[in-house]
Amino acid sequence: MLKKRLTLSAILLASLTFSGLCSASSQDNGIESSSVVAINDGASVHPSWWKEAVFYQIYPRSFKDSNGDGIGDLKGITEKLDYLKDLGVNGIWINPHYDSPNVDNGYDIRDYRKIIREYGTMEDFELLIAEMKKRDMHMMIDVVVNHSSDLFDLIRVDRSSEERWRKKTWQLSQFRQINNRLNNMTGEYGWNTFFLNNHDNPRLVSHFGDDRAQWRELSAKALATMALTQRATPALIYGAYQYLDPDNNDVYAYTRILDGEKYLIVVNFWEQPVSYALPESFSIKKTLLESGMKEQVRTNAGKLELQPWQSGIYQLN
């Protein structure tokens, strides 16, 4: 299994390795190239082609059919290299061309070490590389590690394992740490997309909330409150984010600062009432949004009495 993971890592480096060969080839042939930067202090040559090259993305299936079977192939790409070069293209981004049962138009990868039958053979791919080198062209291969066939070796191993990862339970402390990292990892000018459901947990209320009749709506609102106030698409991507109370095992709390206004977001993740003590410097100016029961007592004395699965957004003084 480790060997196969290392194989995938090697594939990820393939485009950079090939581009380096192309750059070296251009120098050996005396061809001037602005995509190569020479370092005079004895260090190796560092290509900047990925900043300056003109890339043309090719979906092989619909690009050029070389044998008349109605399906584009690798030989078809090779036949059009001169045409692409004349257009000013000096790099090709080739979409997945690996062995696949083709349930998802070739994106369901079965083996990264082989070529999908409809596109040709490994010899065809090696010929394409050789012809691109002759023309001082670069290639970027599309390694779609999030798309795998159910026939992929590692997935077949996981499916037969007694320790299937999808059955793993989650802890609020880990959940908060992950969200905190995502909120801060992109710095001041970047952002993420934020979504809780995926292929293995398509019903986020069932996985992160409580889908029993009495809690389904409340836990859904609690999750929505949290999701729509993260520093991420689809909602608020601007403003400072501060994670609060990392040792609190019941409540997920954080602040957002936007246009000079400070807001507190608090989510009770359990089906029991929770008393949440506000940080000493906090006092609530206005309740903007509050789900759950409304008869709880809340004052600015420094405490929020949260009902099961209750969430709230509060403007602070």
Automatic annotation (TrEMBL):
Residue ranges annotated for the Glycosyl hydrolase family 13 catalytic domain, each copy included: 57-262
Keywords annotated in UniProt: Glycosidase, Hydrolase, Signal
Matches recorded under Pfam families: Alpha-amylase, Malt_amylase_C
Signal peptide: 1-24
Superkingdom, natural source: Bacteria
Gene Ontology biological process terms, A to Z: oligosaccharide catabolic process
Family indicated by similarity: Belongs to the glycosyl hydrolase 13 family.
Protein's name according to its UniProt entry: Glycosyl hydrolase family 13 catalytic domain-containing protein
Natural source organism: Brenneria nigrifluens DSM 30175 = ATCC 13028
Lineage per the UniProt record: Bacteria, Pseudomonadati, Pseudomonadota, Gammaproteobacteria, Enterobacterales
